[in-house]
C-alpha cells in the first residue's frame, strides 16, 4: 500500500503476527507514488512515481533501488509472465508507458539493472495519422487491426483523424492491451505453443 508521503506499507504474512513495516521510497518532498506493481510471486515490487522515476524493491530488503535506465517514463502498466517468475527474477516483463511506448526488461533480486529496450511505440504509429480511409478514425471508432495483429491508430471524432480526437487519452489503455498481446505471444514462443 502506498502513502501520500512516498512510502509504502508492507505486510509480512510469514511472521506469526503478520507485522507491517513502512518503507520510504524517495526522500524528495515533491515525489509522490503514481502506481505500484507486484509480481505474481509477491517478491518483486515496482514503485512508479508521477515524475517519471521508478524504484525496485525486493521482498528480502527494505532498501528500494532507483532504476536509472527507466528514468523519464511514467509507467502505466506492467505485464509479468506468471509461468516464469521466480523469487530471484521476474524473467521477461513488458512495461507500458503513458506516452504509448512498450519496453521489455527484467528484474533481479540483487538489484542489477537489465536492459530496458523499446519493443513497440503506439505514439509513433498514431503520429502518422490518416484521413480515415485506411480504417483509422471515423466517429468514435478504432482503426482496423494490421497484419501484425496489433491495433492501429486512434479513432478520432468526426470524419477521420487517425491521431486526432480520442487517441491521446486512449494511448495508456492501448499500451496495456498491446502489452498483454505481446506477453502472450512471448510466452507462447517460450513454451513452444501455437495459438490462433
**Beta-strand content bin:** 25-35%
The low-pLDDT segments are 127-171, 188-196
Tell me the span between the first and last alpha carbons. Answer: 38 Å
Count structural domains: 1
Overall 3D form:
globular
Structural class: alpha+beta
Instruction: Work out the radius of gyration.
Output: 19 Å
Could you spell the SSE succession in H and E letters? EEEEEEEEEEHH
Biggest sheet strand order reads 3-4-5-6
The description of the largest β-sheet is: 4 strands, antiparallel
Number of strands: 10
Provide the helix percentage. 10-25%
Helix count, DSSP H or I runs of 4 or more residues? 2
Mean pLDDT: 73
Protein name: Pep3/Vps18 beta-propeller domain-containing protein
Biased composition (Gly residues): 129-141, 149-167
Domain Pep3/Vps18 beta-propeller: 1-124
InterPro entries: Pep3/Vps18_beta-prop
Describe the structure.
Pfam families: Pep3_Vps18. This is Pep3/Vps18 beta-propeller domain-containing protein. The chain is an alpha+beta fold. It has one domain. It has 2 helices and 10 strands, in the order ββββββββββαα. The strands form 3 sheets. It has a 4-stranded antiparallel β-sheet, with no helix packed on it. Strands 7-8-9-10 form a 4-stranded antiparallel β-sheet. It has a two-stranded antiparallel sheet with strand order 1-2. β1 and β2 form a beta hairpin. The longest helix is centred in the C-terminal third of the chain and has 24 residues. The termini are far apart. The C terminus is likely disordered.
